[in-house]
Amino acid sequence: VQLQASGGGLVQPGGSLRLSCAASGGISRINVGGWYRQAPGKQRESVATIYSGGTTNYAASVKGRFTISRDNAKNTVYLQMNSVKPEDTAVYSCYVLPTGWASGVWGQGTQVTVSS
């Protein structure tokens, strides 16, 4: 299985970005999908998670600003980031647990920099 993360970049405070994480190769469906981030000098933290039934969880710091979603037909998980703040600057990585798998797969990170 390969995860292709994309959509990172430089954005001004208050702006928006959409991250995508596409899973390919040998999976039928994503059970759980999630986005994590790690800022310099900080531990990796969970940002948002989406479950097979559509239930979502968010870190308190992004709730109301970020939205995680999924396209089951494309085996892709998205993270819509709105009203971004400088403290959102980090490397964002996606995580996917395919249906029927005992453990998940990590994608490569994508850098998000929020700066004016």
Description of the structure:
It is a single chain. The protein is an all-beta fold and 116 residues long. The protein is 0% helix and 53% strand. The chain is built from no helices and eleven strands. It has strands at 2-6, 9-11, 17-24, 30-38, 45-50, 56-58, 66-71, 76-81, 90-98, 105-106, 110-114. Strands 2, 4, 5, 6, 9, 10 and 11 form a seven-stranded mixed β-sheet that branches.
Structural class: mainly beta
Low-confidence stretches: none
Number of DSSP strands?
11
Strand content: over 45%
**Major beta sheet summary:** 7 strands, mixed
- CA-based shape: globular
Helix % is under 10%
The run of helices and strands is EEEEEEEEEEE
Alpha carbon gyration radius: 14 Å
Average pLDDT reading? 95
Name the features:
116 residues; mainly beta; seven-stranded mixed sheet; four-stranded antiparallel sheet; 0% helix
What's this entry about, in short?
0% of the residues lie in helices and 53% in strands. The chain has 116 residues and is mostly beta strands.
